[in-house]
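call fold(seq) -> tokens
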Amino acid sequence: MSKTKPNTHCPVYRCKAKAPHVDDPTVQGLFAEFSDPERTALWTMTAIGEVLNSMSADLTAGRNFALILRLRQVEELYVRALYAIFIADDGKLAHILSDEYPNSFSEMYREVNKIVLEGRGLLEVEYPGLNSGVFTAMDTINQGAHASFSAMMMVIGFARHPEHLEPYTSGRYFKHVDTYYRNLEQVHEMFKKDVDKATVLSVLINMSRPASVLFKKEQPETDAAEKKDEGDELGNS
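ret:
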């Protein structure tokens, strides 16, 4: 069985580039901007803030289909930024910036989930459907991004069952996205102060941990048994 030869122009598996991506003047310009972690964090934070404001306006105006179309945008902006800043080397970053195939959001998400979220990311977790089958949040945001019939059906479902809009109308979803904004704001500020990348990543990992994990890490060994019940409560919140 023959093996695919590695592409000497790009380290990304299955990339068919016939020359180094950085030979392209457009990629050179993008690389000059987004190889700087401080600027990457700043521009991504700004973009997420604008999308968040736009989604809020859509919800207020009853533009629920427009709202659904944007769900993947905020997740992808955040994941791509973290992948570019903390995971990708120069070769992989150049590939991302080239927009050449493959450029999978799902693959970047899995790396970010493993390294930054310590495997606790929820986008690919399976949940039972309302009537049958299972779904993942990744499926849902992808359907929205593709403006699929499934996404339209979701909006029809909102019209028939407005209670399903509760994560948006209650502000829970916007609080979730605001966390991305605040995390990137902190990352930007640290890089602006010349904090080294390993330290910034460590801080980000800590900020990304749920309260239950933070609580357990802070308990001294001698106090663990006494606090078990309280820790369980936090874990179930």
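The chain has one domain: 21-211.
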